Structure prediction request, 114 residues.
Amino acid sequence: MSGRDDAEAGGSSTGPDAAELGGALGERATLVQFSSAFCAPCRATRRVLDEVAAMVPGVAHIEIDAEARLDLVRALGILKTPTVLVLDAHGREVRRAAGQPRRADVIAALGEAV
Prediction:
């Protein structure tokens, strides 16, 4: 995903598991969105990620309320909302971007995960 704050993760460390995220990981990849209640770009990001998850078999979208999960926000180094993490089938972070993503960028980032 191209964006203002793209950062690639090492990919060798284990990412958060389904229990920490509050949802089941996708068979092929997972899009994890950190949002806050009054964030307009978060709503648009939710729509984009829902569309992509519906289009690509084996991809799940999990949205996390950043304010309610400050422990996870701190542990993962989330600095602003929306932030999207792309996890591979094993739950390892392969890509991260802050800000509202474009659908094409999300699909391209999934190519790194699957």
